[in-house]
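Hey, I'm writing a tutorial for new members on how sequence and structure tokens pair up, and I'd like a real worked example in the thread rather than a made-up one. If someone can provide the structure for the chain below, I'll link this post from the tutorial.
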Amino acid sequence: MQRRLWLCTVCLILLLPLGGCWDSKYLDDLSIVVAIGVDKDPKNDDNIRVTPQVVVPNQVSDSQSGGGKEGIPVTNYTGTGKTLLETFTSMTSLASRRLYFAHNQVMILGEELARKGVEDLFDIVDRDPEIRTDFDMLVAKNGKAEDILKTITSMEKIPVQQIYNMIKTYHERVGVIYPVRAREFIAALQSDQNDAALPSIELIGNANEAQKKSNTEQIEPENYLRMDSMSVFKDGRLAGFLNHEESQGLTIVKNKLKRMLIEIPVGDKGIVSIAPIQNQTKVEAVFRGRKPVITISVEHKAYVLDNNNSIVKLQDSGQIHWLEHQAEKIQRELILRSMGRLQSMNSDAAAYAKYVYQTNPKFWKRNKKDWDAIFPDISTKVEVNIAIVGTGIRTRTYIGEK
């Protein structure tokens, strides 16, 4: 009995430190960071210039409730240093509240910094438990990340929310880009079997005018943000940008495609547009002799979106098969051009090395030091199978009908 009482007393004592919220964080004490821009410091080549964007609580609450004076619902801080940690620390003297990164949605890298190299920047992101690694990564094409985050947007009160939605929409509707999370980007920087790739965003217009509220008071703003194409890296440095078609090819090979348009020429001026809706890509390496060959197998189920000519009769199964065959040729050529472009840039963003390793680990172990010389000459074989499963509610076009 005495032993049981002693154990109960010890358990009660041990429960005392667990009471209360020992690590609680009150909103009144925090600056909620929703986006981070990272640029090269123009005054010191060895430093980076970091711009966190934080929410202004009273502006957000006022705009949502309909009361108060409407202002800009975010503000930017800027700090410089050799590392992200050093820059975050340097901004303590500017902010009235502690910067809190758990709700960050986007990190943007300036093009100049990305070309210099970003391989060693992200240790704190990977290490600090308060910084989640599921936010999106972008490259600021032809500009600075800081200018992207200063741009006031029309559709969303908080600019980063518009950027986040643009990534999602452009991926799901056009297939030119695909989202890349911070953890995926960091893993690619560390890997010796594939190079990193990121979507890019561009500021169209004047950076100084884009940050003025008057810019959004026009039906057609002169200064705005535009999602562009995929950027690819080599050894942690930006190697360049793919064009839109090449980016679609990479999206397909990475098995990230949701939807895109395939325009099939018919006659002199006619076009039939189809949209893949169910997509599957399989990539593997095979060896012919002692040389690796990458085989890419793509399957699309698609439906017809537009038929602007009277030549194609969609009720004719023979013409449907002809459209499928033409679409397969277009996709095959698009993928081959995309992979050829990556090989010319010597950026293995499609992870050829990973597939070679999976098929023949011994070959990879012997040749990985010479991969930069081997990769540009690897042959690529592409097989595409497209099935048109729907033509809409009308089989024939009204064009040409009398």
